[in-house]
Each structure stands twice: as structure tokens, then as C-alpha cells.
Amino acid sequence: MTRRPRPGRDDSPDRLYTLTGGRSRSGSDAFDLVTLVVSECEPVPGMQSEHITILRMCKRPTAVVEIAAGLGLPVGIVRIMLSDLLDTSRISARHPRTARVADRLPDPDILEQVLVGLRNL
Length: 121
Description:
By secondary structure, this protein is mainly alpha-helical. It is 45% helix and 8% strand.
């Protein structure tokens, strides 16, 4: 049985080192797996090919995990690259907000009307 290489994980460490400029952590905590990324500009000549691919992928909101899968790179490497793009304002990032509990509850007036209606049955 032959073992197929896994994209990103079995890449040469030299390649990953080059992609991140030798950094092992991003300078920002702005990105987790579900952070949505949107490109704010078009790619310009001279950019890293991975940065160009990210900008093209993120014309619509795209999760960090989807970007990593599309590039075939580990999420940690992608976070570093996204941090570089965020620092130069080429992308924007936002975390999908969860609704507050009070926002998910029905309006008390509606509940009271339902209760009155049930009592009238």
C-alpha cells in the first residue's frame, strides 16, 4: 500500500518556512477556524501567489478553515498569511456573532397574546 502525501502537512518544512517568513505564530488573534474573511482589494503584481489566491477566494465571505483547505496548507500557516494581509488592509475579518439569549426569546407581548388565546379555547 503506497502512502499518498497529504497536502500542506507533508510539504517541505523549507516551503512553509518561506511562506511565513520564518514565523511560527501570527501577530494577531483575529483568526479562528470560523472567522469570515473578505478581500478588500484586487491582487497586485509582486504579491506571493498564495496571497493572490486568498484574495481571489475571499471575494465573498470565506471561513479560515475553507481557505486552508483550498490552499492545501495547515491552518496555522494560513493564519500567519491572513495576518499579513490584514496588517496591510487587503482583507477584513469578522467573527460570526452568536445571538444573545435575550435576542432569541420571543417578545413577551406575543407570549401573553398566545396565552390569552389558549385560555379562550
